[in-house]
Amino acid sequence: MKKLFAVLFVAALCLAMAITASAELYSPEYYGVKPVNPGDITLDGKVDEAYGEPIFYYVADKDIPVEEAGDLGSTANWYFTGDQSEENLFLLKKSDNYVYGYAAWSENALYLCFDTNIEGWHMEGVAADGSDMWKAYCFQVGFFDFNNDSNVDWGVGVAQDGHVLQYNFGQNKGAGKPTMIDGVTDYDAQAVRDGNHVIYEYELTWDVFLSFKPTANDYIGMDVCLDLCNISKGGPQRCLTFTNANYHDRNSANARKMYFLESADSDVEKVVAAAENKKEMTGDEHTVPALGCNEDLGGFVIDTENKQSGYACLTREVGKGFVAQLPLTDPVDASKMDSLEFDLYVSDVALFDKFQQGGMDSGLEITSSGKADAEETAWHLKNIRENNKGGELKNGWNHIILPLSTGGKTGDTNFAAVNFFRFFMVNETEDTGITVKIDNFKFTDYVAASTAALQAEADAAIEKINAIQELTADNYKTEGKNVSPARRAYEKLSDEAKALVPADVLKKLTDAEAKLDELKNPPATDAPATEAPATEASGDKETDAPKNNDDKSNTGLIIGIVAAVVVVAAVVAILLAKKKKK
Description:
By secondary structure, the chain is α+β, with helices and mostly antiparallel strands. Helix content is 23%, strand content 29%. The protein contains 11 helices and 28 strands.
């Protein structure tokens, strides 16, 4: 029995240690914020029960002596720079020093509460308006509005006389503009202190706080750090952060997402999973998110097996036709984009012939009116096939790229506020037996990006052509070596890229080629005609004219040889005759 008790005791001790260890730092990658009714939270410097569990907290897990101060700058949640001498070091005492953060929301406001007893909560040596409160002791909160691509960085602290200082640093790294007022802000706030213990509470109304009023399961980004600096008195900078980005990025798009739960019983993990499944695509400079095809709309059903991206695609059997209306909860700003891209699966491309009885009885449309046939840009199936820049259509998955300029117009589409998609096929009299899947809708600047890519391709050839120096008889053997590579670079260009090479540059290439050919192969020239010099008498001797290699000279040579042979033969005959007489 004692042995069993010992085993259970050890197990309980290990469990308690595990719980203690896990409780010492809770800084999650996302926050779940429960809803409250107006009036459930009172700004009285107390942690109201309505807040529920803290969204993050820190409890010191050990005493930090001076000799270990260097460790502060090397951990994920500590930021420490400057002189780490004993007088500048703040000591965290195990289980005594803590920070707790709470949050709740209503249709009117966001409520935040910070509870800490870390020594040095007060503010000294800072500006009266709190504009440099980060140099002393305060909380800094970074908010990021993903819907409007804007952020703010806000600080709150307690002055020596006990009043709450608040300052909006007004930072903005996105295209949107933060709506919080620069300088001292005027929010409902309360701070209650007891020695080193202080509780901050404040209410941030949506109409002033951010250009965003959430509904259930929406989110914004929020990161928090507790500044424990002594810069205002010449000491070091030191901070405790609750962020998954680095210290200076707490108010950027990397901010942790704060999800506004629908009820106090909502499971934040399920809310996060649902948001991920919705697949609101993250855009870059060439992409604007439009629609993640994960909604059961228009007879489509979710298909997680055959997706092209994200969580799922939409799929359905076409049958005799369908009309799928896909409204967007939040309008999409595609004003800087020039194309619509998406993935389309068809089991049989005969689909594009079956639904062509005339008119817009099949195809795709986008609008900014929130409904069909108004402020629309649309493509019939035939138009999709003819204008697709994503390649020839085939059975299976196809990537569709449609320049917005190719769509038919009904009114003017406000591309800064696209809020409705419709995909439809009607008027077929027989069951087609064709399956359709759609996925990965997005607006892009495909045309601009493609033009830029073509221009870069053309520029490489233009650079080689412009590198050709003027050719002369003195330099063509060296400088002429640049001509052929320039020609090859030009010929490798696509027809579209060739069209981007200016006429004068192309002329420079052809002129250089002609000049090089001229210098390498000068035209043949005849020798100048000369008269034979007259024969001059010198006594009885005549001077023969210079011999040449024409046919007459050859004939004379032959006659001379024959004559010589005849003379020799005659001499031989005479000598033989004289010999016989003897």
